[in-house]
Design goal:
This protein is an alpha+beta fold and about 140 residues long. It has one helix spanning about 1-30, and strands spanning about 40-45, 55-65, 70, 80-85, 90-100, 105-110, 120-130, 135-145.
C-alpha cells in the first residue's frame, strides 16, 4: 500500500514539474507561433479614389511564414505610414481593415479629414506588421491619375 502512495506522489510530482516547464516555455516564447521565414507582400488598388474626391483606396497585404498563412491578425498589428506622396498631398488615415481571404488583409485608406481630397500622383506606403508570428515591413504604392 505504501508503495502505491509513493508511486502516485511521484507521478503527481512529475506532472507538476512538466506543467511548470511547459508554462515557462510558453512564457519565454519557445512554444509560441513560429516566426521563422515571415514574408509580407503588398499590392494596391485605387478603388474609386480619384483626384478631388475622398473615396477609399486599398492596400492588400499577404502575410505568411514557414507554418503557412497568418490568419486572424488584429487591426493594431499593422501600421501604415506614407513615406512619399505628391507635393501638397493631404494626410491619409486607415479607414478599416478586413481579411477577405485567409492571410490576406485589405487596408482601406482615405484622406484624413472630410475637407481633404486626393491629390494626383504616386503615394508610397510602408506597411509594418508586428505580431506574435513575427515582425516585418513591406512597401506598396498607389497612383492617383
Amino acid at each position: 500500500m505504501r508503495s502505491k502512495i509513493v508511486l502516485s506522489r511521484t507521478v503527481l510530482y512529475v506532472f507538476s514539474v512538466a506543467a511548470v516547464i511547459a508554462a515557462t516555455l510558453i512564457t519565454v516564447g519557445a512554444l509560441a507561433p513560429t516566426t521563422e521565414g515571415l514574408a509580407l507582400q503588398a499590392t494596391s488598388h485605387i478603388g474609386t479614389a480619384a483626384v478631388g474626391n475622398r473615396n477609399e483606396a486599398f492596400v492588400l497585404v499577404s502575410a505568411y511564414n514557414a507554418a503557412g498563412s497568418i490568419r486572424g491578425l488584429a487591426v493594431g498589428s499593422f501600421a501604415v505610414t506614407v513615406v512619399a506622396a505628391p507635393e501638397n498631398a493631404n494626410p491619409l488615415k486607415r479607414v478599416v481593415m478586413t481579411e477577405p481571404v485567409s492571410g490576406v488583409y485589405k487596408i482601406s485608406l482615405a484622406p484624413e479629414l472630410s475637407s481633404h481630397r486626393w491629390s494626383a500622383g504616386k503615394y508610397i506606403f510602408a506597411i509594418a506588421l508586428t505580431s506574435a508570428n513575427g515582425s516585418g515591413v513591406c512597401l506598396a504604392e498607389i497612383v492617383i491619375p
